[in-house]
Each structure stands twice: as structure tokens, then as C-alpha cells.
Task: inverse folding
């Protein structure tokens, strides 16, 4: 397949290019072409969005790009940046899709389990009602709505509702590791909120699976079946690193330090990957303890380099 990827220079995108490049022809859209060329070499064309008149010749689009959600305080301006980085790029891609005479047949679009709103529900799946229209929900909901417009142009659209993607070389886990190695792992608030996580290996395998399954479309939770409560996640991570676990960070302190963003840490439902399982996808890393062992003690994750 010829696959065009946005956000390829990011954490998930870098792993994805490494996983898909042996089997597919990849091109990436980046605001930082030099960085993309440094990362991927000359065989992977790095394009600016404006360089593309249309999407002719690509079989699939994988749209991952977006300003990081949790890196900065959610000022009005930052919220706008988070929204626009996803919505405007997707609108521009839709315009290029409309200008295509041989358009791609597949459109995989990132989203997040933030779609379901802030709750501590013990089991949610793709058919569950949304808990509330908070900021994370609004971002995901409108992003998904835009991506679904590609279906009107004949694309098979899959919405990737990603949980917390675990890998030692990016995302949340990379940030937690220095703290936990110092023995500063902590229960956050009540610790009862759920962490719906997924190993990077399974993210890559699920994307490869959705690319290849002609009957798959609509929303898919990319979360492992074994979601755990935050205090269990924290204890297991500390144990995997052979470090003590005794600290507790009160919810009020997180709210003071992080403002509205604290909701990302203090709320979380247990999100089940019902539609992926029903479609026949098998998780290589369904349970947290083995996953942490694999990620922190085993072979490097980017070694899974060939996915069809
Ligand atoms: N990682 C997770 O655990 C997780 C969980 C849920 C959802 N997601 C979603 O999955 C997608 C990929 O995640 P990731 O962790 O790989 O993200 P990431 O490392 O932050 O990378 C995202 C990429 O998006 C582009 N980007 C960043 N800021 C932008 C802006 N202001 N305007 C336009 N493009 C911008 C960048 O590519 P260029 O500079 O090359 O253009 C960047 O490399 C994101 O949309 C994220 O929200 C991730």
C-alpha cells in the first residue's frame, strides 16, 4: 500500500513508520521536513501539506498530528491551539480528498478515550454513552466528526480511540520513569480512577490490522483489555522497577498545580476494546504486569519492525 501519515515525527508516528516501512510505501506530512528526513532517511518522502494538490495515488491516510494535549496549561489560547492543530489539518486533508480523482480508500484517524468524557466508570465500550462534554470530549468529538466526512468520498474511516500508549521511549511512561526510579511513584487522589493503557506494540499491530480488514470502520478503542485502577498501575510500575511505593498526592494539590488538566490524572473510565476483539484482533500484551516486564525488562519495543 502507499500510505500517507501525518504526525509521523511524533511518538506513535515514529514507531508506526518503523513498523510499516518494510511492507508499504510510506510518505509523511510534516511541518518539520528536516526533522522528518533526519528521522526516516531519504526513502520516506517528507512533504509539506501545501506541496500536495490532492491525495491521488495514496491507498491510505493515517492522520495522527496534533499539538500535545497535556504539555501546557489549558489557557484559552492553548485550548485553541490543541483544537486547531487537529481540526484545521483534517479540514485541509478533506479539501485535498475532494480534489482527488483517485482518492485513498482508507482513512485511519487518531482520537482518544477522552471522547467518553471524565468519569470513573468501571466498564465502557464503543457503544457507551458519553459522560460529559468536557474539553477532551469536545476535541475528540469534532475531530472524529470531521474525519467521518471522508466516508462521503468513499473512504473506509476508522477512528482510533487511543488509551495511554505505553513505551519507555515516549509518552506518559517515559515521563514517569525518572520519578518512579527515584522512588517517587505515587497514588493520585483516590487512586480509584482507571488507567486504560495499551502497549505501543499493540497500537502498531491494531493499526496494521485495521488497514487490512475491509469490513472494519467506525470507532475502535485502542486500549488493552486489562485496564487497572491508578493505584494498581502505580504499584505495579514501582514493583517492576524494584522501587518503593508509599507516596500519595492529594487531588487538591494536582488541581492547584495543573488546573483543569488535572482531570486527565484524576478521572478515567476502564475502556474496553470491544470492537477490536469482536473483529478478531488479538492483543499481544493484554495484562499490565507482563507488559511492564516486556517494556522495561525485555527487548526494545521498536524491534517489531515488520507488520503487513
Ligand atoms: N501518546 C498517547 O498516549 C496518546 C493517547 C491518546 C491519543 N493520542 C493522540 O494520538 C496522536 C499521536 O500521538 P503522539 O503521542 O504520537 O503525539 P506527539 O508525539 O505529540 O506527536 C504529534 C505530531 O503532531 C504534529 N504536531 C504537534 N503539534 C502540532 C501543531 N501545533 N500543529 C500541527 N501539528 C502538530 C507533530 O508533527 P510535525 O511536527 O512533524 O508536523 C508531532 O510530531 C495525537 O493526536 C494524540 O493526541 C496519543
Result:
Amino acid at each position: 500500500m502507499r500510505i500517507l501519515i501525518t504526525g509521523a515525527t511524533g511518538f506513535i508516528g515514529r514507531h508506526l513508520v518503523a513498523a510499516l516501512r518494510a511492507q508499504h510505501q510510506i510518505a509523511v506530512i510534516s511541518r518539520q521536513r528536516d526533522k522528518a528526513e533526519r528521522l526516516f532517511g531519504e526513502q520516506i518522502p517528507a512533504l509539506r501539506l501545501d506541496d500536495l494538490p490532492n491525495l491521488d495515488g495514496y491507498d491510505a491516510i493515517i492522520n495522527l498530528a496534533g499539538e500535545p494535549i497535556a504539555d501546557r496549561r489549558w489557557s484559552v489560547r492553548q485550548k485553541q491551539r490543541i483544537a486547531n492543530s487537529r481540526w484545521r489539518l483534517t479540514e485541509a486533508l478533506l479539501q485535498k480528498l475532494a480534489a482527488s480523482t483517485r482518492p485513498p480508500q482508507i482513512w485511519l484517524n487518531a482520537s482518544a478515550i477522552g471522547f467518553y468524557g471524565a468519569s470513573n466508570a468501571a466498564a465502557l465500550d464503543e457503544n457507551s454513552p458519553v459522560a460529559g462534554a468536557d474539553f477532551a470530549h469536545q476535541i475528540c468529538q469534532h475531530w472524529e466528526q470531521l474525519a467521518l466526512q471522508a466516508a462521503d468520498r468513499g473512504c473506509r474511516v476508522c477512528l482510533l480511540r487511543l488509551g495511554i500508549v505505553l513505551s519507555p521511549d515516549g509518552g506518559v511512561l517515559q515521563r514517569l520513569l525518572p520519578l518512579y526510579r527515584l522512588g517517587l511513584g505515587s497514588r493520585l487522589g483516590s487512586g480509584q480512577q482507571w488507567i486504560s493503557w495499551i502497549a505501543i506494540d499493540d497500537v502498531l499491530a491494531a493499526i496494521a490490522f485495521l488497514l487490512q480488514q475491509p469490513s472494519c470502520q467506525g470507532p475502535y478503542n485502542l486500549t488493552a483489555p486489562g485496564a487497572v485502577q491508578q493505584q494498581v498501575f502505580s504499584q505495579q510500575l514501582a514493583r517492576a522497577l524494584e522501587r518503593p511505593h508509599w507516596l500519595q498526592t492529594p487531588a487538591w494539590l494536582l488541581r492547584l498545580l495543573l488546573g483543569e488538566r488535572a482531570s486527565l490524572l484524576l478521572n478515567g473510565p476502564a475502556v474496553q476494546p470491544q470492537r477490536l476483539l469482536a473483529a478478531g484482533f488479538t492483543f499481544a500484551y493484554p495484562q499490565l504486569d507482563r507488559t511492564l516486564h516486556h517494556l522495561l525488562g525485555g527487548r526494545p519495543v521498536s524491534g517489531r519492525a515488520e507488520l503487513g
Observations:
- The chain has one domain: 2-298.
